[in-house]
Amino acid sequence: MEDNDLRVLESLFAQVEDPRMERTKRHRLRDIIILAICGAEGWVEIEEFGKAKEAFFTELLDLSNGIPSHDTFGRVFALIDPKQFEASFVHRTTNHGENNRGRTRDLLPDRCVSQPQ
Fold first, then answer.
1. Which of 43, 58, 62, 90 is a good FRET partner for 50, with 20 to 30 A between their CA atoms?
2. What one-character DSSP code corresponds to residue 38?
3. Angstrom distance (rounded) from CA 38 to CA 32
4. Is-above-0.85 flag for pTM?
5. CB of 76 closer than 8 Å to CB of 62
6. Any residues with CB less than 8 A from the CB of 105 and at least 6 apart, and which?
7. Residue closest to 32 by CA, chosen among 1, 94, 78
8. pLDDT on residue 98
9. 63: which DSSP letter?
């Protein structure tokens, strides 16, 4: 993934506020979101995908505490303001609509959405 690709992913949800208490944060919100949108469905599958691609993601994200657990993904997404999340996502996809024909996966680099090997 190019540096520009990472900046695009980071900017995708930059306006989403992190609702967690500071003392409970083991993973950055942006890292959790990027992992969650990169080619898997459901919290368990997202965790498994992250572990399968851990070497790749470790180069890009701050994963000093490893890949978040499926429970962490669930808790964090339950706390995120859905309207704020949606607004950030819609803004991003709308700004790139001509290029991606409205498909979310087209916003992500190929190496991010390819299946684990």
1. 90
2. S
3. 10
4. no
5. no
6. 39, 113
7. 78
8. 46
9. -
Q: Is the pLDDT of residue 48 over 60?
A: yes
Joined together, the tokens standing for residue 26 give: 């083991």
pLDDT digits (tens, 9 = 90+) for 58-104: 988 899 999 999 999 999 999 999 998 888 877 666 665 445 444 44
Cβ 52 vs Cβ 114: under 8 Å: no
Identify the DSSP state of 102.
Answer: T
Q: Which two tokens stand for residue 25?
A: 């944060």
- Rounded distance between C-alpha atoms, residue 112 and residue 6, angstroms: 10
10 token code pair: 């980071």
Split at pLDDT 50, 70, 90, the class of 116 is very low
For the record, the structure tokens of 18 come out as 């992190």
Q: Are 13 and 33 in contact (CB under 8 A)?
A: yes
Question: Do residues 56 and 111 touch, judged by C-beta distance below 8 A?
Answer: yes
